[in-house]
User: Fold DNA-binding protein from Phenylobacterium terrae.
Amino acid sequence: MIPHVAGPDSPTPESDDDLLTRAEASDYLRRFGIQLKPASLARLWSTGGDGPACRHIRGKPYYPRGVLRAWAEAQDTGLRRSSREGAPSRRGRR
Assistant:
């Protein structure tokens, strides 16, 4: 993680601007119940999939914490019911 400048003994509060490596991003996404290995994050980015956006600094990818949080929250569809619930029963039909 590339944190903002803080004192040597003070804990650094999390900021939306913090840049996380793929491994750190993978760990951070687990807080939201999303389990993606660093290699999976790389594949999502390289294939133009629907993964979180990242910045490249000297060729190395970094994920802003705020972007990861927003992406993770957007993945939650909320509670859904099966499309079969409430549909007429097929039993007895021929």
Observations:
- Residues 21-75 form one domain.
- The longest strand covers residues 60-64.
- The first helix runs from residue 22 to 29.
